[in-house]
Each structure stands twice: as structure tokens, then as C-alpha cells.
Amino acid sequence: MTETSETYEVIVIGGGAAGLSAALVLGRARRRTLVIDAGEPRNAPAAHMQGYLTRDGMPPAEFLALGREEIARYGVELVADRAVDVTADFTVTLASGRTVQARRLVIATGLKDELPPVPGVAERFGRDVLHCPYCHGWEVRDQAFGVLATTPLSVHQALMVSQWSKDVTLFLHEVAETDLSDDDLRRLATAGVKVVPRAVAELVIENDRLTGVRLADGTVQAREVLFVAPRAVPQTGLLEQLGAELTETPFGSYPVVDPTGLTSVPGVWAVGNAMGFSEQVVNAAAGGYRAGAFINGELLFTDLDATP
Question: How far is CA 82 from the centre of its chain?
Fold first, then answer.
């Protein structure tokens, strides 16, 4: 049975760094705010997060737990549920059947990483199968790196990770040598990246660690770390329901936003990985803060201007 709709000033859909940061600002501004969190953070496979000043090395789950505690101090409500539908008047239906309504919406639903279907990749992701050198490069520095090329953009990834190791091999898994430009080949050679024009059949795991990759011809190349490029799948379903304008990028389709995160739909903001592929935790938190502050001011002046 559907519960009676409750009204909030702001509903934040998504309880990651971006959503919690927006909620923190709004709670401190005394706005009645609800966070709807489906509990599926993108960085859940990682044992730690890096590059966030004073939080470098903190487990993501611990970071989120502290964030939930902080927003609760300011009266922000958090519900563990999933938003499944939203209407033009900002009525949100949850998977539990509950409906809630808001004056403003913050969409912080993030994205999902679809990994290459190579046996062993999904099982090791976040451990010794990685995708971001800024997130994990220091921790695996100077080890034997492999890069699984599933797109010509994998050349860029191989060049980047060579900053952390001088032993890098690029496996042309789904990329032909003819797909590489002369500049690609020159840069790879200059960086000392070895190119292997063969597909990877599976990862070799021994004693709970990556020791190599088995190629399609059966040979094994010793590697300790494998960098992959997951296919980003933005979670834009709710934005599409609201009619938000999207733009296509090499990393998926994302909403068109202004510098505060405001989408083409008045009253709807997108923050974190809901508005872009490369929003690391620290960037996502900053974007959430910016959106929260702007929303509070916008509500304030909307109400002042509506007063006779």
C-alpha cells in the first residue's frame, strides 16, 4: 500500500560523497532535507580512497558512515531505499512504495562500472585489477603493470600509468595495431610501454593475488597489476524521466549542467558522477557543497520575492 506523501524542501537522491555533502550544507542551512540512499556506492570494491586531504587512505565505507553521522546532527533524514519514479512536481516514489515530495531535487545517483568480461577481472577489481592511477597508483608503484586495451583510449591509460611503473605492457585485447596512430606508437615507445597485439583469455591468480595474464594463444605473461577501462553507465533514469537535456561523451551520456550543477530542468541539480565521469570523491564532495549552497540561496530569494 502506498504511504501518504511527505513534503521536504530538498530531496537528495543518492547517498555518496556528493549527495551527503549537499545534504550537510542544506541541513546546516536549516532546510528540511531527505537523503534517499540505495547503498550502492561506485567505490565499494576499493579498500581505501586516496587523494582526499585529511582522509587519504580511509576506507570508503568508513567515510560514508561518518558522513551519515554528520548530516544527522543537523536534522537531515536518511532512508535506505531506492527512488524508482519521479514526476514533474518532484514527487518521488520509492521501491518500498513510500512517496515523498520536494521543492528542489539533487540527483546524485552516480554511475556503474561495467567491466570487461575477462575471467578474473570482476573478482579482482579494486584489489590488483584497477582503473585509476590517481586512486591506486602509489599503492602499486614499481610493480609489473598490464593494461587491457578495450578501446583506443586505453593507450592514454597505459601512458598515464607509466608514471607509476617503468614495467608496463599494453595488451591489445580488443584493439588492432592499426587502430594506433603514429603518435600513439611514438609515445608508447618513448614511455617504455611494451605492446602485445594479442587478446587476454583470463587472469592467473595464485595465493589470492594476480601473477599474470593468460593470452588467447595459451602463453602467460607475468603481471602483478592489471589496469582496465570499465564502461561507464551513468544512472540517468530519473533525469530522463524529468526531461533533462543530456549530452553524449566518450564515457557515456550525462546531463547538461551549469557551474552549480543545475540541469536544464529548473529546480533539479545533478552532482558527482551523476553529472560526469571523472568526479573523484573529493570533486564530488565539492560539487555537492556548491549545489547545496546555491539551492539554499535560490530558495531564500524565491520565498522573499514571493512575499507581497
Answer: 18
| The domain boundary residue, chosen from 163, 196, 227 | 227
Note the pLDDT tens digit of each residue in 133-164: 999 999 999 999 999 999 888 999 999 999 99
For 49-116, the DSSP string reads --SSTTTTT--HHHHHHHHHHHHHHTT-EEEE--EEEE-TT-EEEETTS-EEEEEEEEE---EEEEPP
Verify that 203 and 235 share a domain, yes or no.
no
CB atoms within 10 A of CB 36: 24
The domain containing residue 126 runs over which residues? 116-227
Q: What are phi and psi of 158, to 5 degrees?
A: -65, -40
pTM of the model: 0.92
* Helix count and strand count (H, E) for the chain: 8, 19
Q: How many whole angstroms separate alpha carbon 172 and alpha carbon 159?
A: 14
